[in-house]
Amino acid sequence: MRVTCPHCAALYEIPDILAARRRRMHCACCDTVWKTDALPAPATEWEVLPDPVAEPERAADEPPLRTPEPPISQETDRPRPVEVAVTPPFGGPRFWMVAWAGSAVLMVGTCAACWRWQLPLSHAWPPLARLFAGLHAVF
């Protein structure tokens, strides 16, 4: 419902639920206070329609339209387990120990090579000089 201030003609939109009763309104523009008239209740007549899902009436001796199916047993519903061939992991424990030791030797060798050739590496890539300066302070 739209309500207009009687003093400054400011327009307000209020919900119909609030407008169903007589209300005291306060204008935000000019501070005028007035009372609104209550809205009349809407006069609507509801038409009762038949239920579209209801079944039509049948005679008592008439059989049902569809016979219920027997329940499916629990055993036939379950899927059968699939047999999967289990393969051993790649290599054995000895293979993984040798691979771990090889990677550790490779890392130590890379660090030793960088320490040994730090001057040529610093000339080739200048930001590396700050790393070596920091390492010299620690060691």
SSE topology string: EEHEEHHHH
Kindly state the number of beta strands: 4
Mean pLDDT: 78
Portion of residues in helices? 25-40%
Spatial extent as radius of gyration:
44 Å
Structural class: mainly alpha
Cα-to-Cα separation, first versus last residue: 82 Å
Q: What's the shape?
A: flat
Largest sheet: 2 strands, antiparallel
So how many helices? 5
Residues in β-strands, percent: 5-15%
The stretches of 5 or more residues where confidence is low (pLDDT under 50) are: none
Q: Strands across the major sheet, in which order?
A: 1-2
Summarize the structure.
By secondary structure, the protein is mainly α.
Topology, pairings included?
Layout: E1 2-4, E2 11-13, H1 16-19, E3 24-26, E4 33-35, H2 74-77, H3 93-116, H4 118-124, H5 127-138
Antiparallel strand pairs: 1-2, 3-4
Helix pairs in contact: 4-5
